UniProtKB/TrEMBL annotation:
It holds the Pfam family Thioredoxin_8. One of its GO terms (molecular function) is thioredoxin-disulfide reductase (NADPH) activity. It comes from Pseudoatta argentina. This is NXN protein. One of its GO terms (cellular component) is nucleus. InterPro entries: Thioredoxin-like_fold, Thioredoxin-like_sf, Thioredoxin_domain. It comes from the Eukaryota.
Length: 496
């Protein structure tokens, strides 16, 4: 059964790739979800094939068929943990669309794309049958059950937690994220009176008043946000009454101080969820950074909405232009404090360490192109010195990041420094790289391609820049990653 699913999803993905290369570039809906989606109320009819129940989010002339796309991740599991919210979402869907849900060529206000997953399933199931049962009579669309690769990519891309229903709202016009907290918003506003719950822009709230000094800061002088234009920033949502916050804050203080000692421009702005000013004052006495005043409750609330904060503690990392580097800085710091210290804040490059937790390595493997500089731990400084100028030049050429936008064609170039460790060995073996250092390579795992700088060539700031330019302009010799292409060919030969 698993082999059949793999074969079917590879065929679907291959069809999309051929379509995009043969004609016009795919719209964001097709890049993200595929050219065909299933109509749930047809899929439930066992007399119809999945293909005959196909639907799309885009009209033939390229116009989006709705205003807002809700990407709904739910799970088939013994506890039926998602069923209650699914019923609430059906009610919201009907309410927002005026009861009928819209039909034909008329643009609907709201369309849902259901991504059905499985969690805690120990028995062998008929996955196609359980999929049909799970979406029975639902009025919206679903990612094809056979498109396993796409569902896996979406799950990793949006960091979906197993067993937890998640609703992410997207602008149908361009794919920008309206909110990641659709479940919470639906529960709080079941009829959709304020739908689609667009958050305020965070920059306005950051600039709306002074940033005060916390008690452990060297200077007591207040600052304005515009004075931090040169800084990386951590927006820290926390509270004194919250035990996880009180455990995490000392870790953040330690990392903050070490970043300062290394001479990096990094500042933290504390956004309180404290219930009283006394607890707020007691908490900020231990902090060496800046804070939003406690009496500016609306400003604090706007920031929480703007960054879609669902729980505390939350650490959002911004670059000097207020582009989001990560919404989950807390998890990265907890799992690998040195990784955050060495990578997220100098930015632009990542140090691959022994830990196989996947925060630093796996996100790039799933969707991004990589540039990797191999070297010993003692040579990290050298790696920084030659990679950082090219990385900064590349970043300067990118458009300003919309804080709520997540490009469905996310193809950004990431820069990595790989240590002499097990992770690097695994990556070398997978790609087929020789055991040589220093080695500069560009890797595009989704397409199964890699490029290597000429062996023996001196790695300098100039040579790295030339290599990056050549890679971006497709002017360098390309090698195939045998493991990727071998797997693809094997899947294509599997019987349906």
């Amino acid at each position: 059964m698993a082999e059949r699913c793999v074969n079917e999803q590879v065929s679907a993905a291959s069809t999309d790739r051929k379509a995009s290369t043969a004609g016009q570039p795919l719209c964001w809906q097709h890049r993200l979800f595929g050219k065909q989606l299933a109509r749930c109320n047809y899929v439930n009819d066992t007399r119809k094939s999945i293909d005959s129940a196909a639907a799309t989010l885009v009209h033939e002339d390229g116009r989006p068929a709705c205003e807002i796309v809700g990407m709904y991740f739910s799970f088939v599991n013994p506890g039926a943990t998602c069923d209650d919210f699914t019923r609430q979402l059906v009610e919201l869907y009907a309410s927002v669309n005026g009861g009928g849900g819209g039909s034909g060529e008329k643009k609907k206000k709201f369309e849902v794309v259901h991504v059905v997953l499985w969690s805690n399933v120990t028995e062998v199931l008929d996955f196609d049958e359980s999929f049909r049962i799970h979406v029975a009579d639902l009025p919206w669309l679903a990612v094809l059950n056979r498109d396993y690769e796409r569902k896996t990519r979406l799950t990793r891309r949006y960091r979906i937690k197993a067993g937890v229903p998640t609703l992410i709202l997207l602008e149908a016009s361009n794919g920008s994220i309206v909110t990641r907290g659709g479940v919470e918003r639906t529960i709080a506003d079941p009829t959709g009176a304020e739908f689609p719950w667009r958050p305020p822009h965070p920059k306005a709230a950051l600039e709306d008043g002074p940033l005060l000094s916390c008690g452990a800061r060297d200077s007591n002088e207040p600052m304005l946000h515009e004075e931090l234009r040169h800084c990386f920033k951590g927006i820290y949502f926390s509270a004194h009454w919250c035990p996880p916050c009180k455990a995490f804050t000392p870790q953040l203080v330690d990392t903050y101080q070490r970043i300062q000692e290394r001479g990096h421009d990094f500042e933290v702005i504390f956004v309180s969820s404290d219930r009283s000013e006394d607890s707020y004052n007691a908490y900020t006495e231990t902090m060496p950074w800046l804070r939003i005043p406690f009496n500016q409750e609306e400003r604090r609330r706007k920031l929480a909405r703007a960054f879609d904060v669902q729980a505390i503690p939350t650490l959002v990392i911004l670059d000097p232009r207020d582009n989001i580097i990560t919404l989950d800085g807390r998890a990265e710091l907890i799992e690998d404090p040195e990784g955050l210290l060495d990578t997220v804040l100098p930015c632009m490059y990542v140090t691959i360490r022994n830990s196989m937790h996947g925060v630093l390595l796996l996100p790039s493997l799933k969707k991004q192109r990589e540039l990797i500089q191999e070297g010993e731990d003692c040579e990290i400084q050298f790696g920084e010195s030659v990679l950082l100028p090219a990385a900064q030049a590349y970043r300067r050429d990118q458009p300003d990041y919309d804080l709520n936008y997540d490009d469905p064609e996310d193809d950004s170039l990431q820069f990595y420094i790989a240590l002499d460790c097990e992770t690097s060995d695994i990556l070398r073996e997978f790609i087929g790289l020789d055991d040589a250092v220093p080695l500069l390579t560009a890797i595009d795992i989704p397409r199964g391609l890699y490029i290597v700088m000429e062996y023996g060539a001196e790695i300098t700031v100039d040579s790295v820049q030339q290599f990056v330019d050549g890679f971006l302009n497709n002017k360098l010799p390309i090698n195939k990653i045998a493991a990727v292409h071998k797997t693809s060919k094997t899947n294509e030969r599997m019987p349906a």
